[in-house]
Design brief:
The protein is α/β, with parallel strands linked by helices and about 400 residues long. It contains 14 helices and 13 strands. The strands form three sheets. Strands 2-8-7-6-5-3-4 form a seven-stranded mixed beta sheet, with helices on both faces. Strands 9-10-13-12 form a four-stranded antiparallel beta sheet. A hairpin with a 7-residue loop joins strand 9 and strand 10. Helix 3 runs parallel beside helix 10 and helix 11 packs parallel to helix 13. The longest helix is centred in the last third of the chain and has 25 residues. It binds pyridoxal-5'-phosphate.
Length: about 400
Amino acid sequence: MADLSELVDRMHPFATSVFGAMSARATERGAVNLGQGFPDTDGPAELKEIAAAAIADGSGNQYPPAHGTPDLRAAIAEHQARFYGLEVDPATDVVVTTGASEALAATVLALTSVGDEVIVFEPFFDLYPAIVAMAGATPVYVPLRAPAPGSGDGFSLDINALRNAITQRTRMIIVNSPHNPTGMVLSALELREIADLAIVNDLIVLSDEAYEHLTFDDVAHIPIATLSGMFERTVTVGSGGKCFSFTGWKIGWASGPTDLITAVRVVRQHLSYVSGGPFQPAIAAGLRLPDSYFVELAGGLASKRDLLSTGLREIGFEVLPTQGTYFITTDIRPLGATDGIEFCRDLVDRVGVAAIPNAELAADRDQLMPYVRWTFCKQPAVLNAALDRLTALRTIT
Ligand SMILES: *Cc1c(COP(=O)(O)O)cnc(C)c1O
């Protein structure tokens, strides 16, 4: 481990990222990497051309306006209206950020402080606890309910656990649906239950909708801001990287009521100030693509999900239902294993496939020990290569 003696105490738990560590190990061992979730094929060629032209003609090469170009903010507002019927004013209710990541960080930094509690469901996207720590606030972890083995169910919301976690100090709930890492999508009923608790307790909801367009089998993504009583207390976050398969461009956004977005804008302008000049016009064009683009994006991923889940099931894993995102969660117990952390370490070394143990994405690791996350946003040849290697597990166990 590197020398951390100069690092502030509150950031010590976040010194390493499981994704970075697993990718490094995968590279070192020549493993097929189904750990980190990024697509290995580019998004629409016409968006690349727009970004390239904005560099060539000089229009994208200097600081764009604070809060994002007017055209991109307008495109984000149009997108929220077109898909969800949400009305936001691009002049005041939208901010463009350096990926969804910065939108999440700026929102937590702008709206929470020392003494505030922020509710984080686990397993979680690893950024959440780190940004709560940066704000000096306190994360309160609420486990999602694991399915009974063999039931065919996925993870689900435990509304009583959420209710019991709320105190006088609770300020915010971070909601993520479609959910990384479990692949679950919160139902209208689950969202209503969260919303009712947020309203009764006067809480802010930070809704991470990075995978909003990646739901499968006619499962609908419902932004929690569309529920009655919720718009005024919700910051909704989106990711151009996830919507258009350009995760390296790092264009994201937040939208919501003017008072909350004004606060987020103040903090964000002192983080990256502005970002992604040449990419902003390209993402604006992406958000205006016809419905067919979004349908094909989800359809293409659904067939990759099917390829990987069928293969993993044949090898002997219990494959939990995946309603959205880039990820499948499996239960490793049918293979005779119980410790996902050890399982993933062995897998990369002995079988040559990298995956992520869900237990690494939780404060309370025990409940999540038997679960392992695999990404399927890879070319079929890569998924098949991983499955070929994994057949070795049949003989090992
Ligand atoms: C990828 C991801 C993000 C970050 O998105 P960027 O636009 O790359 O910053 C945020 N939340 C979740 C759940 C993600 O998986």
